[in-house]
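User: Is it possible to get a 3D structure for a protein together with its bound compound? The compound here is heme C. I've pasted both below.
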Amino acid sequence: MKRNPGKQSRRKANWARAVRAAVLAAVVLAAVVFAASCSDADSLGDEAVTEVQVGTPPLWSNGIGELMRLKCGICHQVPAGEVSPDGTPQSFDLNYYNAAAHPDGVLGAQDSTARTNITSGILRGPVGSIRQMPLEYATPLTEQEKTALEAWAGTGAF
Ligand code: HEC
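Assistant: Yes, that's possible. Here is the predicted structure of the complex:
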């Protein structure tokens, strides 16, 4: 059989192009997955991620729960999570609505500690020796999110 070097090198070039395309696709896919996982899971950083929209009246079920999990619960979890700083209170967990909802019966967001501190102004400045929340290096709350949390805490935290 007669060899056809031209055809063979064309085939090689096609193969190389296919490999390059596959590698590029994999890199793009990895970047997209990485970006997506950052945007909703990561609540540490300088800039507010997309503002959480809370319904009226503000309820745990229509936005407050999502907001707390995203911007408070990353630190306020029991047992302490990877990014919970030393000194994070272990008496309450802001990923849960109340003690009945927590697997270990630890207090939740509705129970008095978080609620009374929010109505005392902890989202706007220190309350006694407790620093403003979230801590300064964590993703800040938008004004609308602060107002929603305060309204929720002040109107029964349902
Ligand atoms: C980056 C971690 C982090 C984030 C995010 C965070 N906190 Fe805190 N929080 C702490 C630490 C640490 C303390 C302990 C007090 C201190 O260090 O000033 C604390 C204390 C508190 C306390 C006082 C508890 C007590 O014993 O009286 C409340 C209430 C609270 N946080 C609510 C919140 C709320 C609500 C949010 C979200 C809007 C939030 N925190 C976000 C780390 C965090």
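Helices lie at 5-41, 64-71, 112-119, 143-154. Residues 1-41 form one domain.
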